[in-house]
Amino acid sequence: MPMKLLDCDAGIPEREQHVYIKEAGEDTTKFLPISNSATIPGSLSERGCAFCGAKLVIGGVLKDTIQMIHGPFGCSYDTWHTKRYPSDNDNFQLKYAWSTNVKEKNVVFGAEKLLKKSILEAFDAMPTIKRMFVYTTCSTALIGDDPKAVAKAVMAERPDVDIFVVECPGFAGVSQSKGHHVLNMGWIHEKVGQVEPEITSEYTINFIGDYNIQGDTDVLQRYWHKLGIQVLAHFTGNATYDELRGMHRAQLNVVNCARSAGYIANELQKQYGIPRLDIDSWGFSYMASGLRKVGDFFGIQDKVEALIAEEEAKWKPQMEWYKERLQGKKMAIWTGGPRLWHWTRAVEDDLGVQVVAMASKFGHQEDFEKVIARGREGTVYIDDGNELEFFEVIDMVKPDVIFTGPRVGELVKKLHIPYVNGHAYHNGPYMGFEGFVNLARDMYNAVNSPLWALAGQNIQGEVL
Amino acid sequence: MGCSVIQKERSGIINPIFNCQPAGAQYAGIGVKDCIPLVHGGQGCSMFVRLLFAQHFKENFDIASSSLHEEAAVFGGIKRLDLGIATMVERYPDLRVIPIITTCSTETIGDDIEGAIRKAQRTLKAKYPDRVVHLVPVHTPSYTGSAVSGYNVAIQSLITTIAKKTEPNGKLNVFTGWVNPGDITELKHYLSEMGVDSTVLLDIESFDSPMMPNKDSFTSGNTTVEDIESTANATASIALSRYEGYSAAQVLEKKFDVPAVITPTPIGIRNTDIMLQQIQQITGKQIPESLVRERGIALDALADLAHMFFADKKVAIYGNPDLVIALAEFCREVELKPVLLLLGDENGGYAKDPRILQLQESVDYDMEIVCNADLWELESRIKEKKIDLDLILGHSKGRYIAIDANIPMVRVGFPTFDRAGIYRNPVMGYKGAMWLGETIANTLFAHMEFNKDREWLLNTW
After folding, report:
1. Do A50-173 and A1-46+327-423 have the same topology in CATH?
2. For the segment B137-155, what is each residue's pLDDT rounded down to a tens digit?
3. Distance CA B150, CA B153 (A)
4. Closest Cα of chain B to A433: distance in Å?
5. Which fold would CATH assign to domain A1-46+327-423?
6. Which of A112, A171, A458 to mutate: most B Cβ within 10 Å?
7. Reduced to 3 states, what is the DSSP secondary structure of residue A257?
8. Burial level of B74, CB count in 10 A (0-12/13-18/19+)?
């Protein structure tokens, strides 16, 4: 049976519909795990909240913007020091966490005055900063504040500031994914079209769904620069607030993360007629094919081929060195969603690594269609996996390395399985040609650490 | 001249000093063995906190969520809570305690937690007649207090729900407050040297957990249900922290006549002396020669540092209030000058804290204590040149203040994710005083070298 009820899920049999093992000759028209549906309480799901999807993933990347969290200070504290997205602006976006510090009396009597005061205080404290995102959270959404009215009033009082409000409490939707959607749609409807970008090239794009994890944006920006392509807006790696207001002038939207930012690409297509081109920015063959697609669009194939040749000459020998040594290794990917389909074929083609288990926290049906189409037979595909399922799947597939978050990484360490940070990377960037060499290096070093062999030895029993 | 206690004037927060109440409650919950806290709220309320604990301890901790979605926000979340409890008990056969930790959403909705617990207990009893699972209500709306009060509320509720009077056990309850595994090791060492039979609450020494050859070591707290039950049968309780656990000791005093003693948080030589003498007084067990020697070793080490390197160096300290106050007292012992203390929550009682009153009486230079503070209180003072610091003592959330202003900083408290293994070292006790002094010294030395600031001083020492 391709849908699989794991032993640990005997008491929650509905989980059978979320776990799939691909068999020969099957495709996703026959079987597709249920996804983006309500979490089972108490299952020790890995999911986060919608607020996280909006603030931590997308909005918080902006390098010139105050992120005012309207609620008790925990939501602000929690989405601070949890990401590795640097900027060329002295990492302003990593250093600060703002909160309106909602108290019980505000929950009873309303928190709009408090919001206004906190907004003004924050601008006063950082007078060079003129842009702000305001996020509602569970408590301020429940009490029914009107933060948009407050933002409007502040902007009327201070014409040099601009504020964007994201109404995305943690209980909205079933996962982070809801927050991506709310932010995307709010931004296109309220902010895009307000700033006219300065056009300096005959080729212009928006690069959508890349958050400059460990400098990913920098790597890709070098490629665009070499091709003579002007990126009007990176959504949102190393970006400014006003760059994102000028997205409507690009000739092409190039989309990497379709899950978190496909919405805005679709809207830009609908409202401004800008075509959407999806590419994969991880992996040699994918990156090359992505660049070729962009080259075809602009008719600059020669430049693209020259760039690919140059990059491959530079990085291929190192990649081959790792490929020889990683061939046949078994990998699991337990991340948010899209990296499953970005990576599974890429590591197989470029490194000969087999992806034997994949779990997505917030992927939708279309993500599972892609990943199952690209993934191997016999591989386990899980939606919204939980801890006991992970243990059971590890026993089934025995991975050599797991790409996942640091907390799960600490868990599997006890089982003597190395992890590589699949969210924030170990030593990235991982995008582009050089990035995938970094990924290969981190995987190689993780798998071959001498510590694993030492950990397995019992000095009481074995004669060394 | 002197020590002034003031309040932050801004109403908003820029860079909070600690997390909200449910996070503190979760920290208490993971300290109990065979226990998985269930956070009743949105998924972020537990997911981020699990990440935070993993960042600090480099370990995984199990915490569940009731995964509140929209319909629950409208119609109430009790159904989600029921499902959560049922799922956890079914899938984790060894589970014995579930602290049910509320959040701002479920407190605003007004879910009847106590009613839900009564109902769930009836259901569990019918389905699992041979199992006892303690369901502990922990009311921690995020819009009140902070992680500090959340820890306090949770430990108090664990005691209130589980402690049970039977036969006197002759033990001493030790409520440590929010500490690290290294502190627990040190405290247990003292109790063992003195021959005191004790229950350490919560015993989180095991948060520093090994990789074992048979792969069977997973990280959890070490305080058992039996430990908590028997706190009611102890000779006395000693609380090492006024704001983190003392009220649980007071519950035992009120309910079961177990006398509660509060001692200054044992950071620094004098505070450790007082703690040991109080334990001696309560239990009648003598302070042994071995501890006099350990004290002497610490003093011997600190004397090499104090007036040569530390004297008059200005220090800012932030973090959990008991930690900050006790660190300030330690600094004064070794001639460092704490000039700014940041206490990061709205607790109105700090101005009456006897330790702060004592500082106000004794400080003969300018010192500010900011209540309800955030880290912007520190950063803005540095940027506006209102303060000139030689050292910052605090947790990793303030790292960029130190980095950008090029001020040496020693990581202490929670979380300390940007340094390796901090949690393994004690700050409490004589060994803690020595570790603090030597770490401060080595940090200042490295700073002198990297900044070419009288690095030649260390050419001979």
Report:
1. yes
2. 999 999 999 999 999 999 9
3. 5
4. 30
5. Rossmann fold (3.40.50)
6. A171
7. coil
8. exposed
